[in-house]
Specification:
Blueprint (H helix, E strand, L loop, with lengths): L1 H8 L5 H11 L9 H14 L10 H11 L11 H11 L6 H13 L14 H15 L6 H14 L5 H16 L8 H27 L1
Helix pairs in contact: 1-3, 4-6, 4-7, 5-6, 9-10
């Protein structure tokens, strides 16, 4: 997967850690949170970020690191995957300044609740812009064409195979309601222009379908 190779080449960690990360992303249990997902985010970063501050250094390298590690730990049975992924990133001892390491770790942790993320006190504007960009990238699969959106839903369901159908439906309904209530899904202008409308259409359609299934 060429995009995954170019992504990992941008991440300032050891070759051994790159190999470990690649192996993690290719675990058989991953149907959605896998190498395909991070490669997609990387391709979209390069395409939609061209000419923007997010593809200039140091943000290009830091965003690459956040993309690569944000799902490094993924166990559907636990609720702290993001914190565990950030901890793995810190243990990787990347060749960055401490502030840069913590920006990446904080961005990974923020993927636990994309739309509720807020800037920390004193955060420079560029750092917040870059964090929003990464969080928005992670939401772009909501805007796939309907068939792709449905396929992603099936992949997520396979990852959550341990949940009874009623529990899965309730969790899905809660997520869809929360995200549908957001005044804006994508807070980065370039990504909003490309993905907001289609993501809203998918969410609305899926919300109706889940609500209907629960009334049957």
């Amino acid at each position: 997967m060429a995009a995954l190779d170019t992504l990992l080449d941008c991440v300032p960690v050891s070759d051994a850690m790159r190999a470990e990360l690649r192996a993690r992303l290719q675990e058989p249990s991953r149907s959605y949170h896998n190498a395909r997902h991070v490669a997609l985010l990387w391709r979209r970063h390069l395409r939609y970020g061209a000419g923007l501050v997010v593809t200039a250094e140091p943000w290009h390298t830091l965003i690459a690191s956040a993309i690569a590690f944000h799902d490094a730990v993924h166990d559907p049975h636990r609720r702290d995957n993001e914190a565990a992924s950030a901890a793995l990133w810190r243990r990787a001892r990347p060749s960055l300044s401490q502030d840069e390491v913590e920006w990446v770790a904080g961005t990974i942790e923020a993927t636990a609740s994309h739309l509720s993320a807020a800037p920390v006190p004193g955060m420079p504007e560029a750092a917040w812009t870059a964090r929003l960009w990464m969080l928005d990238l992670d939401l772009t699969p909501l805007a796939e064409h309907p068939a792709g959106f449905a396929a992603n839903t099936k992949r997520l369901r396979r990852e959550a195979a341990h949940l009874p159908e009623a529990e899965w439906d309730a969790a899905r309904l809660d997520f869809l309601r929360r995200i549908a209530a957001a005044p804006r899904l994508f807070r980065s202008d370039a990504l909003a222009a490309a993905f907001e409308r289609r993501a809203r259409a998918n969410i609305t359609r899926q919300l109706v379908a889940v609500q209907w299934s629960l009334t049957e």
